[in-house]
Design brief:
Elements: E1 2-5, H1 10-21, E2 26-30, E3 43-46, E4 64-67, H2 74-91, E5 94-98, H3 110-119, E6 124-130, H4 141-146, E7 149-152, E8 158-159, H5 164-176, E9 184-187, E10 193-194, H6 195-206, E11 211-214, H7 217-228, H8 231-246, H9 254-259, H10 266-272
Parallel strand pairs: 1-2, 1-4, 2-3, 4-5, 5-6, 6-9, 7-11
Antiparallel strand pairs: 8-10
Helix pairs in contact: 1-5, 2-3, 6-10, 7-8
């Protein structure tokens, strides 16, 4: 049995579904108990990372765990992550953690703090450090549904966006197969596109011509702070987008090396998700 934390979200749901398709028993732990959130054929249990005591009873018999950490505050993470990971590691021998690229060079980030807690736990581990998610462009969906202009900052920022199906495919192999212990996998899509180019690709999937309008950083900070409820995290995200203007994300071949299949293009992702923009 494999446990998937966050198995009702975009990446976690893909992980749970792909594990199920392999014929494995999957238990999804989520804060809500709506069966509609988890893939068919998986077990759904109630648990909350903010309440570590709610997790242990659902971990018994777990061969491996897929972990998504939902808290962006480094202060909260520094206090909570060791407690949570200690409980999880006592019940399973393998943890696959969905981290992020900044964990490598931002030791104070919540991603890095969770990684350190896992390393100290004694469990076997694999860290997935993807580039930007293709699904992050869904932040533009409301604007696209209501018109042909997207107002957003740093249009020439270059990202190697990765499809959540490819992140999940790597996670499934790390969860269900040997040979991945101690790996820090830098995952990416197959090509770098600027945000303006990403918008053009979405427009092609919709059969529409979409236009980019540069949004001042301060206006973007105010909007993202309100949407995410964490001004410091929003400010950090904007710092990253600004950095990608002159330092585009790298493209790696890790998805193909681990899964045997090339990473999906952003055009593939846009075609599969066109309905979300209509």
């Amino acid at each position: 049995m494999i446990v998937v934390m966050g198995g009702t979200g975009r990446v976690g749901r893909q992980v749970a579904a792909q594990l199920r398709d392999r014929g494995l028993r999957v238990r999804v732990i989520a804060r809500g108990l709506s069966p509609a959130g988890a893939p068919p054929g998986t077990e759904l249990a109630h648990g909350d990372l903010a309440e570590p005591s709610s997790l242990e009873r659902h971990m018994a018999g777990a061969q491996a765990l897929f972990l998504i950490w939902p808290f962006t505050s480094p202060e909260l993470t520094a206090d909570l992550a060791p407690k949570v990971v200690d409980i999880l590691a006592r019940q399973t021998g393998r943890i696959v953690y969905l981290s992020a690229q900044p964990a490598a060079n931002q030791p104070g980030s919540f991603w890095a703090l969770v990684e350190r807690a896992i390393e100290a736990s004694g469990a076997s581990w694999t860290f997935l450090r993807p580039t930007g998610f293709a699904a992050n462009t869904l932040m533009w969906a409301d604007q696209i549904r209501s018109g042909d202009v997207v107002r957003w900052p740093f249009g020439v920022a270059g990202r190697a966006l990765i499809d959540e199906r490819d992140i999940a495919a790597v996670a499934v192999r790390a969860l269900a197969e040997g040979g991945h212990d101690g790996a820090r996998y830098l995952l990416s899509g197959p090509a770098v596109l600027t945000q303006v180019e990403q918008l053009t690709v979405i427009g092609r999937a919709l059969g529409r011509e979409l236009r980019w309008e540069e949004l001042p950083r301060q206006a973007a900070l105010e909007a993202l702070s309100m949407a995410w409820g964490d001004p410091s995290f929003a400010d950090g995200a904007l710092d990253s987008w600004e950095w990608f203007v002159d330092h585009p994300e790298v493209v790696t071949s890790v998805v193909q090396e681990v899964t045997g299949a090339p990473a999906r293009s952003f055009a593939d992702w846009a075609a599969a998700n066109a309905g979300a923009f209509r």
